[in-house]
Design goal:
Elements (H helix, E strand, L loop, with lengths): L1 H8 L10 H28 L2 H4 L2 H16 L4 H30 L1 E12 L1 H4 L4 E6 L5 E6 L12 E6 L8 E2 L7 H24 L29
Antiparallel strand pairs: 1-2, 1-4, 2-3, 4-5
Helix pairs in contact: 2-4, 2-5, 2-7, 4-5, 5-7
Length: about 230
């Protein structure tokens, strides 16, 4: 059972608090992983690089963290938890990255509603999607849900914020900061990933093996005692 527990949750072969350098190693691994996942996604959204903007590079960074934990022989359960948290963080990052880009350089313009669809069954109660066209009558490729309500009818005007660089899709305008809640969710996933990384690295600690020359051969007289000043 001890071997199974060590393989699943890590050996954690230390007494009392873990070594400070081991905690620092776990913090460094977690911070680098969180920074790489979020940073590549934001950079992809800012510069219009499709793969990183969709979180694909973030998934690679999450996989790299899992490989690192495998290399230090962390517990299998903790490796799985870290991998799941890394994937969740990578999947939540694109929405926040798009919001950050629109908040920094987005411009607001009025569009005309061309159709309204009840999306309650697909996205949740009270959710409606509006197909819109710009002031020149060109339909937009995305449907807007912010500001699209049950009372909205074709021909009504909606305000949307768009990226003049075209790196992210337009979004409807609503009161307050529309990406504040996604940021809070992202912070929660980031903190959970950081904590799980620290625990996994700390619990991976194993005592260094004892050199064979410090033990004598087992026998009736010695019983396999340690030599060279070793304890009983």
């Amino acid at each position: 059972m001890g071997q199974v527990r060590s393989a699943v949750w890590g050996p954690a072969e230390f007494v009392g608090l873990p070594p400070w350098w081991l905690t620092g190693e776990g913090l460094l691994a977690g911070v680098l992983a969180v920074g790489a996942i979020v940073g590549t996604t934001v950079a992809g959204a800012w510069y219009g690089i499709a793969g990183p903007a969709r979180g694909e590079a973030g998934l690679v960074c999450a996989a790299a963290l899992a490989v690192y934990l495998c290399a230090v022989r962390a517990g299998r359960a903790l490796i799985g938890i870290v991998a799941v948290l890394g994937v969740c963080l990578a999947l939540h990052a694109p929405q926040v990255a798009a919001g950050v880009v629109l908040a920094e350089r987005g411009r607001v313009e009025s569009v005309v509603v061309t159709a309204v669809q009840d999306a309650t069954a697909a996205t949740g109660p009270g959710r409606y999607l509006c197909s819109v066209a710009d002031r020149h009558g060109v339909p937009l490729d995305v449907r807007i849900w912010r500001g699209c309500e049950q009372t909205t009818r074709p021909g009504d005007a909606l305000a949307v914020v768009y990226d003049p660089m075209g790196s992210v899709s337009p979004q409807g305008v609503e009161a307050g900061v529309p990406w504040a809640r996604p940021v809070r969710d992202l912070v929660g996933w980031a903190v959970a990933l950081l904590a799980a990384s620290v625990i996994a690295v700390v619990r991976s600690y194993r005592l260094p093996p004892v050199p064979l020359d410090t033990w004598d051969a087992p026998g009736p007289a010695t019983g396999g005692r340690r030599l060279n000043g070793g304890g009983p």
